[in-house]
Amino acid sequence: MSEVNDCLGDYEKGDIIYLLLSKEQCSSVLDDWMECNYTCDLSVHRSIKTPGSYVVTTKSLMWATRIIKWHGYQNVTYKKPKKHG
């Protein structure tokens, strides 16, 4: 669990979590997501900054933690959502 704490120590509810994954890690995540029929806000796109890698985006801390623990990752970042007003 310390690995998750290292990655998401300053996370606050509602932050957008970006997980940089290899092709194999991303494939494993998507297989898991489809097989288990999880309900979550998950999007995937190719990384612009790291060719050959993929970025999984979610606001679900539970889902991000699962990916970090069970599928691995290359990097994790997160940011506050934009405030309207």
From TrEMBL:
<protein>
    <submittedName>
        <fullName>Uncharacterized protein</fullName>
    </submittedName>
</protein>
